[in-house]
Design brief:
Length: 182
């Protein structure tokens, strides 16, 4: 599943995957789909899927709660999953990356209602399309099968390479075209 965001000024349309895309393979053989978020990547110059590495303290609190649940297959599975996530969040050294081009330079965004917002020091404010000034709003929720990406614990790609300059340009062009002719 994914979401199309439309800029209310330039009308360009940016598509962001919502389904599981970041598949991590740890050195010890464990593998899992990690969480991800939406961000503005300054290298792609697009809204993009970005890594969202959980805070070990939050994961630990969740594990404490899970251990209180009755012992069955479901709770065992969840315990295993969250333990793996905790181990990963502890061995992870590098900052989160854009899941398209691998850049570390992006602004993490949240969806509030129909609008994309960024966290300030104290408050959240609508995120403004850089160089344009418009605000991104949800246009449509799209049901599509996301393409998974295999990553190491540190977010390096295992399968193939990050989007290069040409692919990033094609993606920007298609956002612009979708706003006009889509
Ligand atoms: Zn715009
Ligand atoms: Zn990027």
């Amino acid at each position: 599943m994914g979401i199309e965001f439309e800029c209310d000024r330039c009308r360009s349309i940016h598509y962001v995957n919502d389904g599981p895309v970041a598949y991590y393979a740890l050195a010890d053989g464990r593998a899992f789909f990690g969480p991800h978020g939406t961000g503005w990547c300054s290298r792609c110059r697009l809204l993009s899927e970005v890594e969202a590495i959980p805070d070990p303290e939050v994961l630990q609190a969740r594990l404490v709660e899970l251990r209180r649940l009755p012992d069955n297959d479901a709770s065992k599975g969840m315990l295993e999953h969250w333990t793996t996530m905790l181990d990963w969040s502890r061995i992870r050294k590098e900052s989160p990356r854009c899941l398209r081009c691998g850049s570390l330079n992006f602004t993490p965004l949240q969806q509030t209602g129909e609008c994309l917002v960024e966290m300030g020091e104290e408050e959240t404010r609508p995120f403004r399309h850089p160089g344009c000034g418009g605000v991104f709003k949800v246009k449509e929720v799209v049901f599509a099968q996301p393409m998974g990406k295999c990553l190491t614990a540190d977010g390096q790609r295992l399968d193939h390479r990050w989007d290069g300059a040409f692919v990033r340009w094609v993606r920007r062009l298609s956002c612009w075209l979708a706003g006009r002719f889509g």
